[in-house]
Amino acid sequence: MAGTLSLAILLVGSEVASRAYWWMAHGVDPARPDQLLEAVYPELRLASAAAAPCATDCLRVLLLGGSVLDPRWSRVPEQIEAGLRARTTEPRIVNLAVPGHSSRDSLLKYRAIDLDPELRDLRFDLVLFYHGINETRANNVPPDRFRPDYGHYAWYERVNALAPAGDARFFLPATLRWARVLLRQALQPDAYVPIQAPRPEWLQFGNEARSAASFRANLEEVVAIAERRGEPLALSTFAVWRPADYSLERFEAHSLDYSGHFVPIELWGEPDHVMAAVEAHNREVVEVAGNHSRILFLDLAGELPGGGEWFCDVCHLTEGASARLVDGILGLADSRMGWRETTDADPRAAG
Q: What confidence tens digit (pLDDT) does each residue in 41-50 have?
């Protein structure tokens, strides 16, 4: 009896300590273990604002992506807002795009919104998913270490430890998983793809786009969530450009046909491997879009010519290229969803 009581006290104390840790260290509501992903994705808190009732007609748009959809790197969010203002009196954009994030991050964020009981009635008028390059870095690992959930990548092993908490009732199980992961990564730091950059000794393994199957699985689940929620999903191929004379030395000297020279391709791996993996991901986007008639599909990679007029670096878009993406997606929404008929006189985003 005493042993059982002691165990109960230990478990209760551990649960209380877990709630205190996540609250003080990461701002997670101690009464909401289902919101633990906010510790690694604080941007999820933006969704609550979109759930408030609209005073007038409004359009809600969810952005899922990496830095190309991030306002610190791109004009895309600004141009989307301008385009929405031409179509509604109250645009609401929930931008969950974060530099470096991949299709898995976007899947987990979208799933978290779907599982949140407080957001159960929230519906987006459009969900834009734009990914293709960031997870190419996950290929830079010996084949026997690759994990479909990217658990061989230090960031994703941490995220995956919290991901099962979407419908959890307690903090302690996820806290124990989190502690185990941090300890393992501290003891075996060389066993993972680093968060910042690929390991030079593993670059050779990026020649196979193993990420394509994972990308496809992540995208398929995003499609399934959107269909279950009745939310229109917009997909686009991911546009990239590598000049024929590309080299790291020329990139660093700002002598290539890029308008900005922001990030070298080597951030993700060997240039040939990165470009091949993006192409493989784009094939998955095309196939998934072709299998679902309700998806709004834009082939931006096929439409954009190369060169500094359109690309700041391998993937970050100029103002004009951003406008091509935004106008293409909103044009599809106009024709397929009846947002409104566009004319040459319509106010459009700059570009």
A: 999 999 988 8
Confidence band, pLDDT 50/70/90 cuts, at residue 63: very high
Asked if the structure places residue 344 within a domain, the reply is no
Based on the fold, state whether residues 2 and 124 are members of the same structural domain.
no
CATH (domain of 98): 3.40.50.1110
Structure tokens at 342: 């566009």
- Name the pLDDT band for 164 (thresholds 50, 70, 90): confident
Of the candidates 222, 34, 216, the one whose C-alpha atom is nearest the C-alpha of residue 110 is 222
Q: Kindly state whether residue 169 falls inside one of the protein's structural domains.
A: yes
**How far is the first Cα of the chain from the last one, in angstroms, to the nearest whole number?**
74
Task: Tell whether 307 and 242 lie within a shared domain.
Answer: yes
Do 159 and 92 fall within a single domain? Answer: yes
Q: Is residue 343 part of a domain?
A: no
C-alpha count within 13 angstroms, C-beta hemisphere, residue 279:
10
Give me the number of domains the chain comprises.
Answer: 2
- Which residues form the domain of 22? 1-31
Tell whether 11 and 140 lie within a shared domain: no
- Let me know if residue 108 belongs to a domain: yes
Integer-rounded Cα radius of gyration of the chain: 22
